[in-house]
Every structure is written in structure tokens, then in C-alpha cells.
């Protein structure tokens, strides 16, 4: 009886070893599986409310990485690509963006940043929401979208909805582009006031000969003490009456 029992034990041992080995490998196989398997969920659910948020974030990160590798070296190529035209058309990237804020009056500043580490906020700003948009001083077409064509001023972040972090980058890029001659400067128009800038005035004209050295006499007449006009003094005093002690 001992021999058959031993045989059965051996067979059982072999069987168990052959069946258990795949099970032992199973966790490692599970780890190797792609993360993007979210079965039985409708496609219309926004990714922020997904319970497999990590998977969607992972996909976003992968997409962002792909985009970065594609447009990292030449970010201005994206502005002429088909996907850009399909997404934005001819309007600027910030058009139609709506800020989320509490109450009826929007805050004076936009949010500090949209992306903290690997966390992206629910309503990222026009620049943060599209990983293909890269702020660079040679990306002139993008920078021009943030400059008013009428005044040449950079649009305020409250108008475009860009977060403070990206706005800072944007301002730096615009300044650099202007320094490199890629963007025009806006110089304010100064109206000629009709003042005499010629050197006919005594102060800038030829130096007169020294006056006779008498006591109390000055080289120029405006070096000496001048008594202002009484009427003018009275007028000024009247104007600033409330502020004079
Ligand atoms: Zn942002």
C-alpha cells in the first residue's frame, strides 16, 4: 500500500507545482498589463470624474509626451498644422474660454497655475489645456494673439483667462521677441507742444562775457533771487487753498 500512496503523492505534487507556477507569475503579468482598461464605462463621462482617473491621467501624460516630442523643437509648426486649424480655426486660442469663479464678479487675478505636479485642474487655461501650445519667443503667431492690434498692449490675463504662471512666461517671451526684432514696439505718439527747443535761449546759447564784478550781480540774471508775479501767486494759492497750511 505504501508504494501507490507515494506515487499518488508524487503525482499530486507535480500537478500542484505545475498549476501553482502560473499563479505565482500572475501578479507580475497583471503589472505588465496596460493601465488603460476601464471596461463598462460610457465614453461621455469626463475624465476628471472617472474612477480610474489614474488611467486617464496616464493617457494624458502619454499624449502630452508625444506632443512634446513632436512640437518641442519647433513649437511654431503647430500653429500651421491641420489639427490646430481644426481646433481653433482663425480665432485666437483664448477665444471662447470661460473662467470658473465664485459669484458674479470675477477675481482681479486669474489662478496661480493650472498644473501642480501631475494634477491638472478642472478648467485649465487656454495655454495649459493644449500641450501643443508652447510659449517661445520665436512662436510669433501665438504671441501676436495676446497683443492688441490697435494699442500694441499685451492683453490682461483676466481678458484671456491665462493663468499667472503662463502669463509671466508670455510677457517674458514677448519682451524677448521684441528684443530680437520679431515683434514691433509700440511707441506712444507724443504731440508737439510748440515749445522752443532751439538754442536761442540764453541758458543754452553762447556764454556771455562776464559781467562787471559788482557785489550782488550774478553771471546770469536767473541766478539771482526772482520775485514772482503777485497775481500768479494769488492764483496758485487759491487753487491749492485746501492743501496749504
Ligand atoms: Zn494655466
UniProtKB/TrEMBL annotation:
Protein name from the UniProt record: Small ribosomal subunit protein mS40
GO biological process, one term: mitochondrial translation
Gene3D superfamilies reported in the protein's UniProt record: Ribosomal protein S18
Subcellular location(s) per record: Mitochondrion
Pfam families in the record: Ribosomal_S18
Family under the similarity heading: Belongs to the bacterial ribosomal protein bS18 family. Mitochondrion-specific ribosomal protein mS40 subfamily.
GO function terms (MF aspect): structural constituent of ribosome
Top-level lineage group: Eukaryota
